[in-house]
Amino acid sequence: MEILKSSIFRFCKCQIWSGRARLVRGVPPHLNIQRLRGFAGVGQTRLLKDNQNEGHQNDPLQEPDFFQVSKLFSVRDLLNANIHLGHHEGCWNPFMKPYLYGSRERFHIIDLDKTATHLKLALNIMSHVAYRRGVILFVSTHPQFEELVQQTARDAGEYFVTRQWNIGTFTNSNILLDTTRLPDLVVLTNLTMFGRGAPPVKEAAQCNIPSVGVVDSDCDPRLITYPIPGNDDTPSAMELYCRLFKEAILNAKEYRESLNRT
To answer: Please, what is the angle between helix 235-261 and helix 112-131, to 10°?
Structure first.
């Protein structure tokens, strides 16, 4: 009898601790995790089969180019916009060497094939963030392109900072801005204008905010999550960047709205 009571006590104790462990993980103690996983797997399999049979689109994250950003531009467009033109050899950043094709008349030439690859990747991540209602922040302190960046952000329905960057905008936002909501993606168009160290890039990295940045031959691309090697001084290049950014964001939002209408 005592042995039976001891066995029941140990069994109940194990069940109590098992329930506590599930509560800590956020799972109610009465749910069977393995059964839920099996049920979810069966449900997902049936759902995918039904979608394939009905011709519906799969999850955008499962497609390499779901929003077809590769059709927004060509290498010829990059060449016509003078995106291949880098700075003088005397002011280059050694970390930009993998993105350089060579030099001509002591000026670096940026490899447009690599620019196209990285630009597609950046446009793709921007599309996914916009599709999932993420907040995108455009940052530029270049006075020549201030109006262009502002208009791009307004047309895309996003946010911008085109004046002096205040130290702590991300890392101390609860004090400076009285908010804890940080952007989901930061787009930087002129890294060299931020001066040494590029505070917005460092703060975004410290807060684990992914960043998209145009990096010229004199920029440091190491802290940029999605660098776009290219000219950041020529108006034609900046106009192409901003147009592509806006189109990628608007296309993703339009697709999301079309799903809501159906």
So the answer is: 30
